[in-house]
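Bug: token stream looks shifted between consecutive jobs. Job 1:
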Amino acid sequence: MSAALAPPFVVASLLLCVAGVVKLRAPAGAAATLDARPWAVRALAAGEVALGAACAVHPTRALAVALALVYGSFAAVAVILMRRRLACGCFGDDDFPVSPAHVIASELLGTLALAAAVAGPRGLGWVLGQPVPIAVVLMIGIAGAVYATVLVYTLVPRAWAVWSTG
């Protein structure tokens, strides 16, 4: 079972890296929402990159639980921000309010990380250890899934805002 969870676990891990890197580059959106200084957002972003990279490269059950807790925290914060109609700055300086997609995506990613923790997480080493054609297909799928999930967090709120206002 843990082998089946490897690609989605890597997606969750790398997504956290992407979010962290974007906030390192552009912390203003998250800083405004959290009423925090940009250096504080960058420190949190560095932690995201570190955790995501550790989970992708050398996953352990403890790291998978930490990843699940992070995504669970993101879901809780997203609920609060959604109720206040605030943007999250998850992926930079986006100014659209958090949508239900944020909450759902974070809950699903947290649940996935928790399932990987129970089953025994596998990361990029497992993916790259597959026969070359399979590894290539898995890496393309992982990259596509990371990109698609970024879109869930960034474009779906725009669509939701347009749809819900009329």
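Job 2, same session, no restart:
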Amino acid sequence: MRRVLLCVALLAGSVAGGAAHATAPRCDSRVLVLSAMPVELGPLVAATASRTTVTYDGHDFYLGRLRGRNVALALTGIGPVNATRVTRSALSHFRCGARSALSAVVFSGVAGGDAIGNVVVPTQWTLDAGKHVVSADRRLIAAARRVAHAGVSLERQAPAGDPACGCLTNPDQVATVAVTTTPRVEVGGAGQTTDPVSGKALPCVPGGGDVLGCAPCLIQEQAQRDAPAAVAGAATFVDPAFFAGYSSPVEDSKKYVVEDEETAAVATQAAARHVPFLGIRAVSDGAGDPLGLPGFPVQFFYYRQLAADNAARFTLALLPRV
């Protein structure tokens, strides 16, 4: 956390994204790739070619080519309320007449789980502690298993990252400790999405860095101009109740291979529109920490870049098979 505050204090600017606003081709088939936070979407946006931006219902969608696929990438923001809104907006606007122009929805992000750095691809998701379950698409699960079998190079050394989106040109250029376990891909099991903030739509913060920000670091512009807004908007997250909700024990949590705050909400919306869905989550807080840090949020802030990078690596390997 101290690294985050220090980097924010040193903000003098950020890298412009180079994305031009454009009108979305209405009938291009695309894979919708979602993440909750800038740190998660950043590696995928950086790898996207011919990038343009469209805005629907106040949400930016980054269009382009990624690993041979037409994609639309977007941040949902933190929490199931935000995730529901952005997914619903995408499903409503990316249309080709009566049918969806989205061939699949993929979520790439970090989560709590077994061992830091592991990539977990659950076959089922629940938003209400198992009362209702949404299944991931069988074809996408089969593709995920093939990618896992072929092997994906996953990071073990934790990058320092770029918490303020401006201190480093490459968030992976400064390495810290290595986790004590060897990261691997796990396909199967059930994932759980919780709502620790009780139905609130948490706002993003303009210029708010790689966790609270409203855009990937590559696209956050004029962070110094937005610094006053960041201080005001961050008040929601400074409230002790925010982290208290995350720290509360989840009933029967051992049933689930990963726990997050968005994926099942996205899966529910995709299922309602009959669009294939897959959730990919890499572990940011779990076992394998050589520093012995307490769990969330301390481990999350230290290992979020490692987990985000590993989730993105798997997502990039999967896209050619989607």
